[in-house]
Amino acid sequence: MNTRHRWRTWSNAAECTPLQLTRPETEDGIAEAVARAAREDLVLRAAGTGHSFNALAATDDALVDLTRYRGVVAVDHDAPSVTVRAGTRLGELAAALHREGLALPNIGTLAEQTVAGAISTGNHGTGLAHPPLAAEVLAVRLVDAEGEVRQLTREDPELLACARVSLGALGVLSTITLRCVPAYNLRTVSGSEPLDAVLERFGQWAGSADHVTLSWQPWGDTAGTLACHRTTEPVTPGGDRRRYRTTAGELWAGALGLAGAGVPAAVPRLTGLFPGGDTGPYTGTGHRVHTFPQPVRFHALEHALPLERVPEALRALRPALRGRGIHSPYSVLVRVGAGDDAPLSPAYGGPTGYVNLTVPRSARYRVLLRTVEAVMREHGGRPHWGKAHTADAAVLAGRYPRWDDFQRVRAQLDPKGRFTSDYIRRVLGPVRAPAAVPEAAGEGVR
């Protein structure tokens, strides 16, 4: 008799009670879980730390929790590259690479996310020279719908490109090989200026430092700016602890969220009282500047837009958010990045801007997410695969020029829809058999 187990996302945005919940510690264990699901004709989804703000990983059939399948497999200093197990947290990987004198080319703010989860959803940091993390993938091992392991490399460019950002719809990632760079420090400079001034020279601002971020509270007209320059200069004394100021800001925002749910006008009045303001430029270790602990749970939405469309989208967002009568204590964040060629990458096609809104988990704030989504959709935005959104396949198909290429590969690797949950069916549609399916590429290696 099977006993169901409850599984929830980090933010409690989604939960499920899978019939089978396995936590494999080896690749063979992953393969066996998939093979068992195939024998019993169950849908199977893979999960990491549950940091998606939607039901991406949820299923009531078979769930594979990869968080015990972690650790670095190999480091190649000549390439340089690293091969890592899918359930490894980004922070663990960054720290391990730093000990080797290496780093990931770029990383987002959330160190607790798993490597597989980050690349599968198109996760990114910021910087016009830096594409999403998935673009740094050199090879993956993928457990397919029959429980066989495929090695996908750049010798199979289409298969690898599809697998890099695949939402878990092609199989379960086992190990990933990522390009690395020499370890670096970041010289970080904060500033502020009128939002309209930044938007007038947005393209220039976006390329003004190795990594840039804009933060804006919609009830005001001033934007905070953050510029990080790669450097070989040593870490400022206490520099690596500066990220905890951001953590303190998260705690303050969480407290304001509780106040704002009852008294909306309190948020703009109280936000400026936060005592942890900027204390000047500093230099810190690259991965410690990029990330910070996030103790407060929240909901978040993000859309990727062509870089040149970000200013008009933000200008449209201003009156839309101001008209709602409630404000999130979290700023609207804008980051930038290079394009990607993975068919389902939100950054597909060229330089990209990312517009993010975080809100407290109170239901009252969800109107803000719907407001932002409507504006971003009007301006050609593609929703982040791991964050809150209401888009379905009918909306999304027209936003990805290589949508049909991905669907053809999906039909090739998972013809029976083993990895197609209700959520995947909503955002990708059902598996469609192409007119002519190419011969399967990539060898089974079990």
UniProtKB/TrEMBL annotation:
Keyword Oxidoreductase found: yes
MF-aspect GO terms: D-arabinono-1,4-lactone oxidase activity; FAD binding
GO cellular component, one term: membrane
Origin: domain of life: Bacteria
Ranges of residues in domain FAD-binding PCMH-type: 14-183
InterPro entries: ALO_C (IPR007173), FAD-bd_PCMH (IPR016166), FAD-bd_PCMH-like_sf (IPR036318), FAD-bd_PCMH_sub1 (IPR016167), FAD-bd_PCMH_sub2 (IPR016169), FAD_lactone_oxidase-like (IPR010031), Oxid_FAD_bind_N (IPR006094), Vanillyl_alc_oxidase_C-sub2 (IPR016171)
UniProt xrefs under Gene3D superfamilies: 3.30.465.10, 3.30.70.2520, Uridine Diphospho-n-acetylenolpyruvylglucosamine Reductase, domain 2, Vanillyl-alcohol Oxidase, Chain A, domain 4
UniProt KW Oxidoreductase keyword: yes
Keyword annotations from UniProtKB, A to Z: Oxidoreductase
Protein name as it appears in the record: FAD-binding PCMH-type domain-containing protein
Organism in which the protein naturally occurs: Streptomyces vietnamensis
Source taxonomy: Bacteria, Bacillati, Actinomycetota, Actinomycetes, Kitasatosporales
